[in-house]
Amino acid sequence: MNDHTKILLDEDEMPTHWYNIVPDLPAPPPPALHPGTHQPIGPDDLAPLFPMELIMQEVSQESYIEIPEEVRNIYRSWRPSPLYRARRLEQALGTPARIYYKYEGVSPAGSHKPNTAVPQAYYNAKQGVKKLTTETGAGQWGSALAFACALFDMECEVWQVRASYDAKPYRRSLMEVWGATVHPSPSPLTASGRAILEADPDSTGSLGIAISEAVEMAVADPDAKYALGSVLNHVLMHQTIIGEEALLQMKKAGETPDVLVGCTGGGSNFGGLSFPFIREKMAGNMSPEIRAVEPAACPSLTKGIYAYDFGDTAGMAPLVKMHTLGHDFVPDPIHAGGLRYHGMAPLVSHLYELGLMTATAIHQTECFAAAIQFARTEGILPAPEPTHAIAECIREANACKESGEEKVILMALCGHGHFDLASYDAYLSGELEDYDYPEEKVLAAQERIPVIA
Ligand SMILES: *Cc1c(COP(=O)(O)O)cnc(C)c1O
Predict the structure, then answer these.
(1) CB of 364 closer than 6 A to ligand 1?
(2) 128-to-67, 124, 132, 378, 396 alpha-carbon distances in Å
(3) What is the pLDDT of residues 266-323, one digit of tens each?
(4) Of 107, 154, 184, 266, which one has the greatest count of Cβ atoms within 10 A?
């Protein structure tokens, strides 16, 4: 043990490789299937959507992939990111647990998303792609990709979920500052958007719908490709820079974690922190419990079905085996917009099935209460998404207080909440509601999931 509060790495200690967990797993993850033929997809099927280097990373069997020099140079403007010991929070809780958090809010976009936006823009630019299309829920992914496209002189066109487009105008401004064009989704610009609007002109949208729109536009334009901010193998792999750094930082602090906690929307910040630790666990070097935390209103891991489902609402994206609430799921309007996705990363879903991790779901009022306690002790204002990790961390620290156990908790604090103050306002004025995910909805969704022979 030592007296660190902030554990930093030098620039030249930044890891040089991303970690691909796939070859180390006891069983291979089920393959992605073509949405039309239901046959396993090959690289050619994905070529209209992604550049070849990202497709090869998506199906790679290499354990380590070198981070290109140009990407590392950009990473260095905010990486390595700091690891903090939450001393004042520990004191306020009166817990014997030692709490650490890896903070990704130091990136230009304020979250972990640029860790994958930058390499995605880089590989596309290298292949001569002129424009990237994407969706965004809370606006964090859209702003990260807008930032990355600006660095590589590419156009960026974003479909922002209507609910968030209306509620978070400054995220849109940020995307526009970085040069992106932003449309509310559903939009009249695409066939999938028009179909939704015909059925419901007041649709507040969903990530699944916005993905359909962005995919449709990319496929129709030979100079454009599509970028996804979570869920896919290559995205989770790019995020492992977080965990690789955290391993070095925990070592510097002289600590071995007993529990890792991260929030899960599509699974990328959670996978990014945890996969390198799971590697160490599988190698017998440590034995932390790895715990995902999701919103009670959008509980894909804890209540979803493990089945092949579409990644988008219109059924254009590949079929992947994942924990899903159904591809046409429209979530309740909880404030953690980045966690309102119907599915979970196939890799995280697979790890969950293999028993390599656990999951829990928490209501948003408990999460915001935890965030307020965190802000008042640690000073950082968390994004609504990682408030779920904070709430679970506080539950664990309180359990340690009961039992007297001195556990070491490591948490992913994946972004700041400077654009989310309207959500904090709602909490502070007592307007925040909790939503449960009813059992009928689970059953109804199951009926609409495609049947795979
Ligand atoms: C996008 C986002 C999430 C949800 O996505 P994951 O892929 O699960 O990480 C969570 N937190 C923040 C701050 C985000 O920007």
Answers:
(1) no
(2) 19, 6, 11, 44, 49
(3) 999 999 999 999 999 999 999 999 999 999 999 999 999 999 998 878 788 889 999 9
(4) 266
| Residue pLDDT, tens place only, 116-156 | 999 999 999 999 999 999 999 889 999 999 999 999 999 99
Q: How far is the CA of 105 from the centre of ligand 1 (A)?
A: 11
The answer to whether 338 and 17 are in contact (CB under 8 A) is no
Q: Which residues contact 313 (CB under 8 A, 6 or more apart)?
A: 192, 196, 206, 208, 209, 211, 212, 327, 328
User: In testing the pocket of ligand 1, which one of 268, 349, 423 has its CB within 8 Å of the most ligand atoms?
Assistant: 268
Cα–Cα dist 245/390, whole Å: 20
CB 307 within 8 A of CB 449: yes
Domain 23-28+50-66+113-233, CATH class in plain words: alpha beta
Which of the listed residues 263, 364, 367 should we mutate to test ligand 1's pocket, taking the one with most ligand atoms within 8 A of CB?
263
Ranges of each domain in the chain: 6-13+79-110+236-432, 23-28+50-66+113-233
Q: Where are the alpha helices (DSSP H) in 289-345?
A: 300-303
Q: Which atom of ligand 1 is nearest to the CA of 110?
A: 13
CA distance 64 to 382: 31
Q: What's the rounded mean pLDDT across residues 214-237? A: 96
CATH for the 6-13+79-110+236-432 domain, from 3.30.70.260, 3.60.21.10, 3.40.50.620, 3.40.50.1100: 3.40.50.1100
Please give the structure tokens belonging to residue 327: 């591809």
CA of 1 relative to ligand 1 center, distance in Å:
31
Following DSSP, what letter does each residue of 138-187 receive, concatenated? SSHHHHHHHHHHHHTT-EEEEEEEHHHHHH-HHHHHHHHHTT-EEEEES-
Ligand 1 centre distance from Cα of residue 97 (Å): 26
On the question of pLDDT at 453 being above 70, the answer is no
Cis peptide leading into residue 186 (ω within 30°): yes
DSSP structure class, residue 23: G
Atom nearest to 113 CA in ligand 1: 15
